[in-house]
Structures are given as C-alpha cells and as structure tokens.
Amino acid sequence: QATRACHGLFPKRVLMEVIFQLASRSNISAIFAVSDEGHVFRALRYRLSKGRHFHASYDEFWEGLNGKKLSPFCWQLPLQMERKALEEIASKKRAEYRRRFALLDDIAASVQARIDPAVVSGKIQTKI
C-alpha cells in the first residue's frame, strides 16, 4: 500500500530522496553506503544466528540509485537522482510519473521548509 500511495515509488526510494535533500541543504559533498558484504550481519559473530535473516540486497538498491561501488564493503551514492524526461516515458505512464515527480517536489519543499537555515550554515544561535 505504501508503494501505491507513493505512485509506484518504493518507500526506501522515497526515504533516499529525503536523504538527498538533507545532504543538499547541508552542503554534504558525498554520501557513502554499506554493501551487502559490509553489513554487520556478515560478521563472523552474526553468521550463525542472524546471517540467514538478511532479507534485502543493499548492493542492488545502491546500483539502482546509480551508486558507484568503491570496494567490496562500500558504495558512493549520487547526491541527487536524475529524473527521466517525460518525453522518454511511455504515454500511458506519464500521468503516474507526473504524480511521482509532484510527490518528490513536495518532499523537497517540505525538507527545505523544515531545516533551520542557521543550523545548515553552521551558525547556530541560542535563544534566551
């Protein structure tokens, strides 16, 4: 239901959009992510107990976000996701993509409206 409510975007993809927006507003120059091999459940102490319960592939998700694998344990993610041009999208899917893009624009506006400019600039002021 969450995917349907997000017009076909997986919730983890929507969450990544929030992270991209926060990174952009905070002048972060790189986003790094752990690979499947680097996940804590791959550690020797977890292999027997929790190693079998690894349900999702981080590597596939990071690759789908156009991430770049830096090592067997680490990915570097883009700072923003490129959107397809509406002309490249099949006409029967364009309405859904317009709704997706509107949702992503709303998320960006919401993040921007909620971040205190003083915190982002590093000039935190205390109110007395």
TrEMBL record:
It comes from the Bacteria. It holds the Pfam family DUF535. InterPro entries: DUF535 (IPR007488). One of its GO terms (biological process) is DNA damage response. Transmembrane segments: none annotated. PANTHER family: HOMOLOG OF VIRK. This is DUF535 family protein. It comes from Enterobacter cloacae.
